Amino acid sequence: MIKHIISLSFFVLSYCTIAQNIAFRTANFKDKKEELKRAIEAIKKGDDFFEIANEAVFLVKSPELNYELALKEYKIAQKLNPNNAHLNFKIGVCYLNSPYSHQGIEYLLNAHKLDPECDPFLMFYYGYALQLNRQFVEAIKSYEAFSENYRKADNFSKFVTKRKKECKIAKAGIAEPIRAWVDNVSSLNTEYNDFAPSISTDGSEIIFTSDRPNGHEPNNAGSFDNDIYSSSTRSGKWMEPKALLGSVNTEFDDISDNLSYDGTKLLLHRDDGDGFDIYESVLKGIKWTSTKRMHFNISSPRSNDIHAAYSSDGWSIYFARDNANRSNGYDIMFSSMQSKSKQNFGAAQMISSVNSRFNDGPIYVAINGETMYIASQGEGSYGGYDIFVSKGSKGNWSKPVNMGYPINTPYDDFFFSPTANGKFAYIASNRAGGKGGFDIYKATFFGAPKTPIMESENYLLASVVTPIKDNAIEEEVEVKKKSFTVFKGKTIDALTKEAIEAEIEITDNTTGQLIKTLTTNSATGKFIITLSSGKNYGIAVKTEGYLFHSENFDIPNGTTDNLVNKIIELKNITIGSSITLRNIFFDSGKSVLGEASNTELNRLVKLLTDVPTLQIEISGHTDNTGSATINEKLSQDRAQAVVNYLKGKGIDTGRLTAKGYGSSKPMASNATKFGRQENRRTEFEIKSN
Predict the structure, then answer these.
(1) What is the pTM of this model?
(2) What CATH number does residue 210 fall under?
(3) How many C-beta atoms lie closer than 10 Å to residue 537's C-beta?
(4) Closest alpha carbon to 5 in 436, 412, 373
(5) How many Å apart are CA 570 and CA 573, to the nearest integer?
(6) Residue 685 is part of which domain span?
(7) pLDDT tens across 403-440, in order?
């Protein structure tokens, strides 16, 4: 069961007319005295749990397992007497404060039919039933009727005020839906609770949490602990979910929070018996490592800490923390590293601008670093949890704005996880029509017609997968957008085609600045990284015993919806091996090296320095445009320019040969612009080692 989520949602079901309220008295059960005794004992036992749970809810705290434990007892009495108004009311409330809220409606309606005055809070819950059924005007009337009679000393007014506001906001929001649709991902869901989705940037891998049977012993309420699962797509369909490989799952509640943008790290939170703490696991090969509790400024021994998310720059962790001294539920905080090498985080700071008087979180920080998606029960919700958007600038976050219908409903809608360009997102919801309690849903945003560039194969570090298509986010969600390209693939041996672990360096060719260094997966060779538009990138791939490989990507400003999938074949350092230097630049028709070539050339210098026995030939190549004589001279001059650079860096002349081949060794057809571009290149070949 999801113990830290407080839900007060339900919808109206049809119900049978019940003629008479039957009390638990001996006169009504003369022939069932023993059964009556057991029923009364069960009700008393259930009431103890019920009172504890109610108190927690009114304080915006977690009811823990208490509603479940109360329900277990109440069902014993219900078998004997299904026509008692107050018992029906209490069973209904237990269900309403669970992910299976819809199951409580018939009990509340029965209670209202049997005795509309059986409990002072009946009209409050009845009003919420109408709210979930989108009967907003009638729901407000029910709340007002409750408000006239509830006990002021209960300090319950903020709940009533909140519900009435929700009805007005939901009515307006549903009347003007955003340009999106939401589908139940049935292949991932079960009759149990499936929630906390975290999607890879390319949309091909999903990690989520479920309390489906897992082979562990169920708790006292009969439910299983939460474990973390993963699934991949094949031919556009999600495969059967499997428990996450490795040592992440335990006998405690393990709840996934956030998959890192490159798919190599996972934040999660766990209740280990002393409250919730935040942990991190790292992908090694095909398995996830044993979890490591985060720094004490994130996982504090004095609080419950949940719903962690990575920042876009890798320096901060966002998370939700409860406050024992206030009735505000969970608030959103962040903590930043003082040093990446030491992994020491500073004191957590509250983000006041995004927090409410109710539970706030889960959280997702978009890869642009300027957008935060927040699930909250606070102001502006349609009911229960809704998903909101906040904009960030220079460390300041704006007041969250409801994302709108159909993303949000009067039910609990939370855990927003988008693909890199925002066209798709995955959420969890217990809205009507699902397979179980909480289900995973896919949201698709659409705006003006666009022509996305798509790939037919996707690869992620975690597993072998196939694609899900990505486009771009719709216009109604007012989020400042940056455009990105997802660069993914795997590194393999050029001869054996087996996966190789390699280091990839991403460089801004304009400035020479190293942007990112990553290591491909040791078992699969896979990698994934998201690059922002408006830059020319140099991609260098290297590993011990192999020639380094280079790629060049020029991503203009405004480029969106790109997905580049690249199989990188690495060659052993053997005589005859050659490599194309993709980041060597000359002006058209000239042999003067551009400054943007320095990063690539310095890598070659390092290779020759590290392997002092290497002797290489630098070769220049052109397309077939123009005369053969001019092309041969130009290619020779360009090859010599590279040799001269290497000499200038201290490489012995005897190890270097320059050779111009003109257009005599094409790699591609000269009949196309792309082919001619491929043929204009600089290479080196190992002649001796």
Answers:
(1) 0.80
(2) 2.120.10.30
(3) 22
(4) 412
(5) 10
(6) 575-689
(7) 999 999 999 999 999 998 788 999 999 998 899 899 99
